[in-house]
Amino acid sequence: VCMYVCVWVCLICMRAQPLIYPSTKEEILARRLAAQDRHRATEEQLLAQRQAVIREGERASVRQQLDLEAKDRESLRKAKEAAVAKVIDGLNEVEVSPTPQSPAQVAAPAAVVPPPRSTKSTPVATAAAPVRAGGKIEVKFTPRQFKTPLREQHAQQEEEWLAKQSEARQAVQRAKERQPGDIEADPLWLCDRGKEFFKQENYQSAINAFTEAVTIDPNCAPAYSNRGACHLKMGDPQACAADCLKALTLLQPPCDANARSRLLAHTRRGTALALVEDFVEAAAEFRTALALDPENAELKGCLADALRRGNFDSGQS
Predict the structure, then answer these.
(1) Which of 83, 104, 120, 272 could be stapled to 241 by a disulfide with Cβ–Cβ 3.0 to 4.6 Å?
(2) Is 316 a residue whose pLDDT tops 60?
(3) Separation of alpha carbons 105 and 99, rounded Å
(4) Could you give the angle at which helices 279-292 and 297-316 cross, rounded to 10 degrees?
(5) Collapsing DSSP states into helix, strand and coil, what is residue 28?
(6) Long-range CB contacts (< 8 A, 24+ apart) of 94-100?
(7) Do residues 249 and 230 make contact, with C-beta atoms less than 8 angstroms apart?
(8) How far from chain centre, in Å, is Cα 290?
(9) Is 254 exposed, middle or buried (0-12, 13-18, 19+ CB in 10 A)?
């Protein structure tokens, strides 16, 4: 009987108070989303509070640092004012004591100062100063190898060039000493022979002579330049450009003594570069040659031709 009564009471309660939670899937999903939104809002609120606390701490630290700097400036200002005040007080305490005088100086009356004399005085006849005896002044000039004024030249470059020439002469002398009595061991004689072969249009023999000269004396710049001219006549502009470049390397530092040799080397190298259609470098060589000989009409024509052909080729490319 008791069991039936309990069951009946439970049924009555269930009918009287329905379930609180929804029973459909849509309602359960909506409740879950609402709970997630509430949780997200709570997290954002907590994050904002934490960030506000952090910012407040940073502001406090900045204010504290500013206060410390202000205190330091104030203490420094006070120290400076105290130092200035101390110096001023010390200056006020110093008294300038008068110079002590003897009793005689105190009792003696003040000396009477005579009136100033007139600046206009009677001219006094003076004896004429003796004439200085004549003398001889000797002017000595620094000995120079070059005839041009020192102000128009570069002494350091000229000295370097003279030193190179001295070394070349010593090399020739050593070559002669190694083979005494053999004239073919003289690079200067070989250069002369090469020039003679060149005039006879025997270019291969000239090349052999100049090659032998640079073998004996590797610093013989004219032999390289003249051999380049022979290569140019033989139809080998690459070898000519290389020999002329070697000659220009040896013809340093530039000075009046090697101006003629540099002019020939630049002209020959520019001609060789123009033959291989390197007109930009050829124009540069002709410009340098014109700087050494501005009145050379042939060089002006070569430069104009190189510039014209160089611009034409660049326009085509």
Answers:
(1) 272
(2) no
(3) 12
(4) 160
(5) helix
(6) none
(7) no
(8) 29
(9) middle
The residue-averaged pLDDT of 269-284 equals: 93
Q: Quote the pTM value.
A: 0.46
Q: Per residue in 233-247, pLDDT tens?
A: 999 999 999 999 999
What count of residues does the chain have?
A: 317
DSSP 20: S
Tokens 């020192």 locate to: 150
DSSP annotation string for 215-245:
HH-TT-HHHHHHHHHHHHHTT-HHHHHHHHH
Q: Which of 162, 209, 218 is nearest to 189 (CA)?
A: 209
CA separation for the pair 32, 53 (Å, rounded): 32
* Separation between Cα atoms, residue 187 and residue 171, nearest integer Å: 10
Record the tokens describing residue 186, joined without a space. Answer: 């003289």
- The pLDDT score that the predictor gives to residue 189 is 86
Instruction: State the alpha helices, DSSP H only, in the chain.
Output: 2-16, 25-93, 103-107, 155-178, 187-199, 203-216, 221-233, 237-250, 259-275, 279-292, 297-316
Looking at residue 26, its pLDDT comes to 86
Whole-angstrom distance, CA of residue 139 vs CA of residue 127: 35
**Percentage of residues in the chain having pLDDT higher than 90:** 35
Among the ranges 13-22, 164-173, 220-229, which has the highest mean pLDDT value?
220-229
Residue 283, token pair as written in the block: 């124009």
Q: What is the pLDDT of residue 182?
A: 58
Helix (H, G, I), strand (E, B) or coil at 7: helix
Q: Based on C-alpha coordinates, what's the Rg of the chain?
A: 54
- Two structure tokens written together for 284: 């540069």
Sequence letter at residue 294: P
Half-sphere exposure of 171 (CA within 13 A, CB side): 16
What is the structure's pLDDT at 268?
95
Tokens of 216: 């004996």
Q: Which residue's entry shows tokens 């540099």?
A: 262
pLDDT in tens, 278-305: 999 999 999 999 999 999 999 999 999 9
DSSP 8-state code for residue 118 = P
